[in-house]
Automatic annotation (TrEMBL):
InterPro entries the record matches: Aminoglycoside_PTrfase, CcrZ_PhaseVar_Mediator, Kinase-like_dom_sf
Pfam families tied to this protein: APH
Domain Aminoglycoside phosphotransferase, chain residue ranges per copy: 17-222
Protein name per UniProt: Phosphotransferase
Species whose genome carries this gene: Lentibacillus kimchii
Domain of life: Bacteria
Origin organism lineage: Bacteria, Bacillati, Bacillota, Bacilli, Bacillales
Transmembrane segments: none
Length: 275
């Protein structure tokens, strides 16, 4: 924490901001507060300029090589689960996915798109290495569905995707400004990975078409195949993440998600075409 103190000055009070890494703190002086973080991506400056995250106030490189960033701390709250279906979320996501500035910056930072074929191979290899494929019929069926739906994911236009669109990463300020924070997992990918996550876990299915229209795409069987492909992939990645931490209860929860998803895909998505 000494580096954070040096970054802002000894007249500021520094307290932990929480989180898993311990790299985030809050600095307070009089009636002003700043959100401090260590070694944030240079991508943060472009996100701030695009008004997608709270304003970046300063960036300082310390003697030990760490980079400390300070962002404006705004009064507000995390978005509630039921608010994720609101159109302002669709509007913000569309703004992000259509931003050439964000895409250019991520590419300058060395980020390259990973194709769905590469991601399918990577998750298959990881699950095999962990011994999870032979142990769970749900995972075997999921891999089969990923393979069957894979052609629908090819040839798409890529954009900057946040890749962690849980409701607690969206901040609504008291002035009704919506921000999307925690960009550590950002990648260049198919936007369906982002909006598909929101649709599946937050938006009632009968409202999908209206939400997609507001976002700016037309619904189609191929689009729904793409959405479910990325939803399945996301759940499998969580399975491996929980497995590495030996959290068996959460693994069982994810396997239950896979059973439900596989059943829906078998009886609805795959019935649209002969496979």
């Amino acid at each position: 924490m000494n580096w954070f103190q040096k970054a802002v000055g000894k007249e500021w009070d520094i307290t932990p901001a929480g989180g898993l890494t311990g790299d985030a703190y809050i600095a307070a002086k009089d009636d002003r507060r700043l959100f401090l973080k260590r070694n944030s991506s240079p991508f943060l400056a472009v996100l701030s300029a695009e008004d997608i995250v709270p304003k970046l106030v300063f960036t300082k490189r310390m003697e030990n090589g760490d980079v400390i960033t300070g962002q404006e701390w705004l009064s507000g709250r995390e978005l509630r689960s039921e608010e994720m279906q609101q159109y302002r979320v669709a509007d913000l996501l569309r703004k992000i996915h259509e931003s050439s500035e964000l895409l250019y910056m991520l590419m300058r930072l060395g980020k390259q798109p990973v194709t769905p074929d590469e991601r399918f191979q990577a998750i298959t290899d990881q699950l095999e290495e962990d011994g999870l494929v032979s142990a769970h019929l749900e995972i075997q069926q999921t891999l089969k569905h990923l393979w069957l739906l894979l052609p629908a994911t090819r040839g798409q236009q890529y954009a900057v995707c946040h890749c962690d669109l849980h409701h607690n990463n969206l901040i609504l300020t008291t002035s009704s400004q919506l921000y999307l924070v925690d960009w550590d997992n950002a990648m260049i990918a198919d936007p369906a990975m982002d909006f598909g996550f929101i649709l599946k876990w937050y938006v009632p299915e009968e409202d999908w078409e209206a939400w997609l229209t507001r976002y700016g795409v037309n619904s189609s069987p191929q689009l729904f195949e793409r959405i479910y492909w990325y939803v399945l992939l996301d759940v499998l990645q969580y399975v491996t993440w929980h497995w590495q931490r030996r959290d068996m209860e959460k693994i069982q929860n994810r396997l239950a998600d896979l059973r439900s998803l596989n059943d829906h895909i078998s009886h609805t998505i795959l019935s649209w075409s002969d496979r």
